[in-house]
Amino acid sequence: RIVMGVESSCDETGVGLVRLHDDGTVELLADEVASSVAEHARFGGVVPEVASRAHLEAMVPTVHRAFDTAGLRMSDVSAVAVTAGPGLAGALLVGLSAAKAYAAALDVPLYGVNHLAGHIAVDTLQHGPLPAPSLALLVSGGHTQLLRVDDIAGKITEIGSTVDDAAGEAYDKVARVLDLPYPGGPPIDRAAREGAPDAIAFPRGMTGPRDAAYDFSFSGLKTAVARWVEAAQARGEDVPVADVAASFQEAVADVLTAKAVRAATESGIGTLVISGGVAANSRLAALAAQRCADAGIELRIPRPRLCTDNGAMIAALGAHLVSAGCAPSALEVSADPALPVSTISL
Ligand code: ATP
Ligand code: MG
Ligand code: FE
Question: What pLDDT, on the 0 to 100 scale, is given for residue 179?
Fold first, then answer.
């Protein structure tokens, strides 16, 4: 069975096609993404109206590219999955409307699904079925959460989250302070390779004895970086961009991996999945690999292309819902910009 996935929650128009095999494994056939990120770069963040219009223009061509790549015809599709939330309301509506039209025209079931659960489900395309339970560290532009995943199609429970900024948001804000382009993750990752991670001792938020063990905070770190850079500029010094980037990145990776490994160990869970855009970070992957090996935890991180927003993640989640025999959504299903991760499909 072929499942089509449509993603439009932020600034990527994504269309994925996967094959659901009889044994429940899911195979990636096409993953086409059109991004409007360049149009947002000069604003330093995503402009909702610009994103919605870009989705409108890109949606149909992206669908056709996906079918061309996979060598499939639309009549081969047996279900359509689409991001119903969380995300930007106008952006979500474009994908949802398109997916409804395809599902109705092809007379196949529609699954309105959770974008965050999709970020986790995508890992099965690369590493096969998720052991139950698994622990997921979801680190993206809008979210930073530790999740217990008992069943990717049925039960996801939040055990911790950021109390302020998301990890990706901190990357984007620190990039701005360092005069690096938006989105900030990739340029900071690159700059950090030339710097020393121990050059500057930036704070590790929420790691005090009284702090919640599985929650995160990144706004203090972001402010500390901004203060440090301002102080250097006030002294008339050149800002050592590589050292600041490396030291900031180290603080983020340190806290994320320490808490994830601790949560896995304390809950007796043997598999950690790290996903979402920030999971593309090279230092996070390296430190997680080291700490998981020390703790005897299996680590799974999808390749960078699958970590950032795409349609394949939505198709993968849709395939798992089909495989589990979950009820499809009504054709009237609406977008929910604040959909909680525990609601996997609507
Ligand atoms: P959400 O999934 O929470 O709705 P989103 O979809 O906008 O948010 P993603 O596309 O999953 O987020 O991730 C985008 C974020 O990932 C951006 O903040 C970006 O800076 C960050 N990012 C991308 N690549 C890297 C990298 N190599 N290192 C660190 N951060 C990165
Ligand atoms: Mg994006
Ligand atoms: Fe995302």
Answer: 96
- The set of protein residues with a Cβ atom below 6 angstroms from ligand 1 is 9-10, 87, 115, 140-143, 168, 171-172, 183-186, 189, 276-278, 280-281, 308-309
Q: Is 95 exposed, middle or buried (0-12, 13-18, 19+ CB in 10 A)?
A: buried
What's the chain's average pLDDT?
Answer: 97
Complete DSSP assignment for 292-340: HHHHT-EEE---HHHHSS-SHHHHHHHHHHHHTTPPPPPTT----TT--
Query: In the prediction, which pLDDT does 173 show?
Result: 96
Residue 9 CA to ligand 2 centre (angstroms): 9
Q: What is the pLDDT of residue 42?
A: 84
Taking the whole predicted model, whether its pTM rises above 0.90 is answered as: yes
Residues 245, 250, 253, 259: is their CA dihedral positive or negative?
negative
Strands 155-161 and 298-300: unpaired
281 marked as binding residue: yes
The atom of ligand 1 lying closest to the CA of 282 is 27
| Ion ligand 3 residues within 5 Å by Cβ | 140, 309
Beta strands in the chain (DSSP E): 2-7, 12-20, 26-35, 77-85, 110-114, 134-139, 144-151, 155-161, 271-275, 298-300
Banded pLDDT at 114 (limits 50, 70, 90):
very high
Ligand 1 atom at minimal distance to the Cα of residue 167: 18
Integer CA distances (angstroms), 176 to 159, 200, 238, 245, 262, in order: 31, 19, 16, 12, 32
pLDDT grade for 202, boundaries at 50, 70 and 90: very high
Strands 155-161 and 144-151: antiparallel
Tell whether the model's pLDDT for residue 209 goes beyond 90. Answer: no
